[in-house]
Structures are given as C-alpha cells and as structure tokens.
YbaK/aminoacyl-tRNA synthetase-associated domain-containing protein (Streptomyces katrae), 188 residues
Amino acid sequence: MSAPVGPFEDARPAPDCLAELVAPVAEAVRARHREDPSAAREIVYVETDPAVADTAAFVEHYGQGLLEVSANCVVVAAKRGGETTLAACLVPSAARADVNGVVRRHLGARKVSFAPMATAVELTGMEYGGITPLGLPAGWPLLVDAAVGDMPYVLVGSGRRRGKLIAPGALFARLPGAELIAGLAVPA
C-alpha cells in the first residue's frame, strides 16, 4: 500500500498493525474497525524515525510539503475555581492553538495552559511527541480546528514517537468528544 501523503515506504492500514500502536490507540482503531471496517482501513500507519518525531525535524527529514498536511495534538489544562479539566486540541502543525483566547473561552476556564508533560503522558498512555487524538481518555473534550476537518488527509502522531497515522480530516471531527471550532488555530 502507498501512503496517501508523503514519501513513506512502509504504509499499512492501522487495523493491520495494532502491535505497533500503544494500547489506547490500538483500542480506538479496533473500536472504529468494529463500527465501520472500511473507515478504519482509511487510517494508515507509516513507520517513521523516532529521532525526528518533532514537527520541525520531521518536515526537514521527510519533506517540507508535509507541514501543510500535518496536525499536532496538544493536551491542555483548563482551570476554573479549584477544578481542572483536561482537553486536547488538534491544530495544523504550521499554526498553534489559541490557548488563552478561543480554548479558554470554549472551555469556560479562567486560565488554560499546556498540561505538564508527565500528566499528559500518564493520562493518555501515549509518548510525549506522539500524542494523537485517537484513543484519548473518555470524557476529554477534543477541540479540532475546522481547517483540520477540511483536509483530505492529515498526518498525526501514532501515540508513540515512532510512526505516524494518516487519516481523512473528517474522521477527526467524528471522534468521541470532538468539536469542530473555527479559529482554534492561530499563526505560529
């Protein structure tokens, strides 16, 4: 199989390589496969070098054109009173989440910041630098920039620093807890 985007030589439908994924991501792919096998097979796993997992190093190594089809998933902590709510934001890699504006207002928080790395890793069961919207903890809001939902294909983390997932942008808008939000991303 060839990857729908990028120069990746090792591309396989994600349901065929569950062993390459962390447990919560593998379970999300399994669940999607049970619901709609053909849609699950649209999720493609590509093997990548973990040493270049961060966006800038990744596009330098695999090609600048990938920046336009990549999205980053970041975990944020929204605070109001004594309560903290965790959420994830999926934005194009060439932009950043408007954490102190759109995200804060949407979550009804007094303050929003990026969740500490240890918290994000522990609660998602994913590796830092590979967090993906597939397999996030139940009940977490997933704020998806509308531009991501409109992309034909989106390259995101796989839950590990090794490997990426490629899926239609519309798939991310249909994930549990997902909300499409115009203007979630602002220029980096």
